[in-house]
Amino acid sequence: MSLAQHIARQRKHLDDFIVLLEAERESLSSAQVDGRQLSEQARQKQALIQQLERLESQRLVAQRKLGYGEGSQGAETAATDAHCLEAWLEFRERALHAKQLNQFNGLLIGARLNQNQRILDFLQNAAGQALYGPDGQSRLGSLGSVASRA
Q1: Does residue 45 come out as left (phi exceeding 0), alpha (psi in the -120 to 50 range) or beta?
Q2: C-alpha to C-alpha distance for 49 and 64, rounded to whole angstroms
Q3: Whose CA is closest to 25, among 94, 135, 102?
Q4: 3-state secondary structure the chain
Q5: Which of 117, 119, 115, 139 is nearest to 129 (CA)?
Q6: Distance (Å, rounded) from C-alpha 65 to C-alpha 60?
Q7: Interval 35-71: pLDDT, tens
Q8: How crowded is residue 127: how many other Cβ atoms within 10 Å of its Cβ?
């Protein structure tokens, strides 16, 4: 398999990964998060990451065997010699885009976790307080300070 064919194969898997990251972002951004859907997306994401890592490892081994140095300079020289530098640079650009999408999704996950923790803290605090006093009157006023943190 030529380097150009290998890069095209990597690009296809990377594009699939980006589509999945965009779907994950949509899932995380919706008002009602579907846990099963997110779990399935995480499973698919892990499988694509493993495939991308395997393909990148194969490319690096071939690059070394052909006498090119490691790193971006060796990759660019190999791509130039194989007449597929443009495809390589586009792949690198898409990989950067995937990295940014994945980081953004991580921020969304962190925000969701933070929100869920605040809700749990509120519920735990509220569970420790009686909602009604001995006179049968609501004690919602006593939960006001808790509600402002949730």
Answers
A1: alpha
A2: 22
A3: 102
A4: CCHHHHHHHHHHHHHHHHHHHHHHHHHHHCCCCCHHHHHHHHHHHHHHHHHHHHHHHHHHHHHHHCCCCCHHHHHHHHHHHCCCHHHHHHHHHHHHHHHHHHHHHHHHHHHHHHHHHHHHHHHHHHHCCCCECCCCCECHHHHHHHHCCC
A5: 139
A6: 9
A7: 899 999 999 999 999 999 999 999 999 999 999 988 8
A8: 8
Count of positions (residues) in the chain? 150
Read off the pTM: 0.78
Distances, alpha carbon 62 to alpha carbons 115, 119, 125, in Å:
47, 52, 59
- The identity of residue 35, as a single letter, is G
What phi and psi values does residue 27 have, to the nearest 5 degrees? -60, -45
